[in-house]
Design goal:
The protein has 442 residues and is of the alpha+beta class. The chain is built from 15 helices and 20 strands. It is globular, with a radius of gyration of 21 Å.
Length: 442
């Protein structure tokens, strides 16, 4: 019996030959053996929050949501062992019980830890890398059911490949995370003119632990958010206040405005100006994971690119200008992270500015996204692996200094391409034993 699988946004779907949710390594190994016997390729679906075709398959689709436990945690060392199917939301709450936290998080927490790290998901903070940098060890099951533990000590090449691996090496079953003691953040949201932010951008980035902003194409206002560590007790906001701000205004009211914009695109400039000016001063003092994250209840699709930090101002101005030529009621989001050393990390080897553009459900996104991508290309942009882009292996290879090293690790752990699909064939190329790839492993 086959089942239809659909992603969170509702714009990617597939009908796999088999969809299953193993409870443990033994069941997972049996499913891989069955897939090999049937000649099926294998993909793993997390929470479906990627906007690309990364999970799609007509073979075996694995759901690891039943492998969702925190196996152990040690506040003294900061190390925690967790299963790959655990969502960030569940993981954050569970780790807090041990007095541990991620040093940086994005603003969405519905993803599984495996999906978030495999695609290079990130938060913001000029001195902090993306979430996958917290991976101390990666437990991987290969196509033959063999388990390997990848660490910087045991296999530094494979460890650097697996931290942002796109599910191309095998099935990640567990991680050991390197965390920090739990902490409290003061989050301050305030509208500031875009030109004022860009005129002193380095001060905003370097003067805060975490800085980001949203802006609209047709508004001069940036909705800034500054999160900084404070030595204060957590003071969660009353539930009615959270509901009013995060559910009613940021979700239901904005969703209604987007629906109006979809029916009457000519109103978009007015809607955007009103939405930007409606942003008011907000302050929150709470556990870090509660300040970092916020709910997203309405559907959209997204493109996000990582560019060198030094191009931030020029690229932001160009994206804001080009966005005025297209009908999208959605905001543009801008964040920053430190570089890291994962082979396929979009922030690999460089301080990075992330710029994300969005389109509301049911509205044409491709012309808008392609125009933005042309700008990102000029600034040596690398796409977020879980968000829409139109790149291929040929256009991407030159943007990643360690591209061939990743290809070598992939060839070693998945020589038959069992964990590939059409998307990976496009963006990574088919698995092949090229001389260059083999030499890189040596």
């Amino acid at each position: 019996m086959t089942k239809l699988w659909v992603n969170w946004a509702g714009d990617q779907q597939c009908t796999p030959a088999r969809l299953c949710a193993p409870r443990d390594q033994a069941e997972l190994s049996a499913e891989l053996a069955r897939a090999a016997e049937a000649g099926h390729r294998v993909r793993v679906a997390g929470s479906g929050h990627s906007f690309t075709e990364t999970c799609l398959t007509d073979g075996l689709l694995l759901d690891l949501s039943r492998m969702n436990r925190v196996l152990e945690a040690d506040p003294a060392t900061g190390l925690a062992r967790v299963q790959a199917g655990t969502t960030l939301a569940a993981l954050n709450a569970r780790l807090d019980e041990y007095g541990l936290a991620f040093p940086n998080l994005g603003d969405i927490d519905v993803q599984t830890i495996a999906g978030a790290t495999a695609t290079g998901t990130h938060g913001t903070g000029g001195r902090l890398p993306n979430i996958s940098a917290a991976l101390h060890a990666v437990e991987l099951m290969t196509a033959d059911g063999h388990i390997v533990e990848l660490t910087e000590e045991s296999d530094p090449q494979a460890w650097r490949a697996a931290r942002v691996g796109l599910g191309a090496l095998g099935v990640v079953t567990a991680f050991t995370l390197k965390l920090v003691p739990s902490f409290v953040l003061e989050g301050v949201e305030r509208p500031v003119p875009v030109d004022e932010v860009l005129a002193d951008l380095d001060s905003y980035i370097d003067g805060n632990d975490h800085f980001e902003f949203y802006m609209f194409a047709h508004s001069p206002i940036a909705m800034t958010k500054r999160n900084n560590r404070v030595d204060l007790p957590a003071a969660p906001r009353p539930e009615p206040v959270d509901w009013f701000a995060d559910i009613l205004l940021s979700n239901h009211a904005f969703d209604a405005l987007c629906r109006l914009a979809r029916r009457r695109p000519g109103l978009i400039p007015w809607i955007q100006r009103g939405a930007a000016y409606a942003g008011s001063y907000r302050r929150q003092v709470d556990r870090s994971y509660r300040v970092f994250t916020s709910p997203r209840l309405f559907r959209f699709t997204e493109m996000e690119y990582a560019i060198p930090r030094e191009h931030s101002v020029a690229a932001i101005r160009e994206i804001k200008e080009i966005a005025q030529r297209f009908d999208s009621p959605m905001p543009i989001e801008v964040r920053w992270v430190a570089g890291d050393d994962a082979f396929l990390s979009p922030a690999g080897g460089r301080a990075t500015c992330y710029i994300a553009v969005h389109q509301y459900q049911g509205m044409a996104h491709e012309p808008f996204f392609r125009a933005c991508e042309a700008i990102f290309d000029r600034y040596d942009g690398r796409p977020h692996w879980g968000k829409r882009h139109y790149q291929t292996a040929e256009t991407l290879r030159g943007r990643y200094p360690d591209w061939d090293r990743f290809a070598a690790v992939r060839r070693h752990y998945d020589p038959d391409g069992r964990f590939a699909n059409a998307y990976l064939d496009r963006v990574l190329g088919p698995v092949s034993a090229t001389e260059d790839a083999i030499d890189q492993l040596g």
